[in-house]
DNA sequence: TTAATATTGATAACCGTTACTATTATTATA
DNA sequence: TATAATAATAGTAACGGTTATCAATATTAA
């Protein structure tokens, strides 16, 4: 099935591409509804998956059981705050070597990797915020 | 609520502790039913979460939408085969430094991390197996 | 023993995601 | 520009893993 243009797909992508946070389908759905009040949640999901499969966006599995989406497809890692749940990009140098190190003593073929760092974000550190609904575990699922 | 002893909880833990794969709740449920045919799936889930919260086991989020469980709580990383879905432990040296590298240019506090490597496992490489129900993407969700 | 209470089994509810389908929008072609 | 082919949509139902509920049971302390 050859891809056809779709205004709704554009709207989904445009909503995501200017964002630095990593919203879930629900947030994207709510945002796009400003422009397309009748858009269906299924349409949002379908287009998000199409955009992922065509390499326009990537999915980010934070470990909270909900899929997050990221328009930045460049290789980078993520930090997840165990207090507020915020997901931030994490720029770090020389992590490219990690893949090589892992491949060194592994019999299979490694094609990619993703790393997730957990802790307390700058904002929560400053606020010394109470742990909210989200549990403040040292290590979340992952 | 002070923890009370439970035979079912022991069975869940004993099933998991000798395993090198990273079974899901369903697999554990099926396994424990050999010994406790009337155990409920809810009981398995509840005890798995209790075991996690008490640090006896850890959860592993592979990115397939299902929680995997691992009795090895030592810090180690995982490899996920994009063909057969197998999850293997990945021993790699000098990855301890990764956390330090990440913390170097980050304002928050990093307490832990987990890395997931994707690729084709040794067995699938040998068999040149056809991609099954699981999509053979280079980068799965994550 | 008895009393207090954590745990269980059974089942319903929950919720993020996916599938279904008649209708509509997009694109190619005449 | 009209027409035909078909991809995409809105609305909604279904799906599946996980969580919540609750009366009955097991565990522990006294």
Report on the architecture of this protein.
2 copies of one chain form a homodimer. Chain A is of the alpha+beta class and 142 residues long. Chain A has 5 helices and 5 strands, in the order αααββββαβα. In chain A, strand 1 and strand 2 form a beta hairpin. In chain A, helix 1 crosses helix 2, helix 1 crosses helix 3 and helix 2 crosses helix 3. The C terminus of chain A is likely disordered. At the A-B interface, strand 1, strand 3, helix 4, strand 5 and helix 5 of A face strand 1, strand 3, helix 4, strand 5 and helix 5 of B.
Number of strands of chain A: 5
Q: Which oligomerization state do the chains in this entry correspond to? A: homodimer
Give the uncertain stretches of chain A in residue-range form. 129-141
Biggest interface found: A-B, 45 and 45 residues
User: Taking Cα atoms only, what radius of gyration of chain A do you get, to the nearest Å?
Assistant: 17 Å
With strands numbered from the N-terminus, the spatial order across the biggest sheet of chain A is: 4-3-5
The portion of residues forming beta strands of chain A comes to: 15-25%
Q: Estimate the global geometry of chain A from the Cα principal axes.
A: flat
Q: How many individual helices of chain A?
A: 5
Helix content of chain A: 25-40%
Q: Mind describing the biggest β-sheet of chain A?
A: 3 strands, mixed
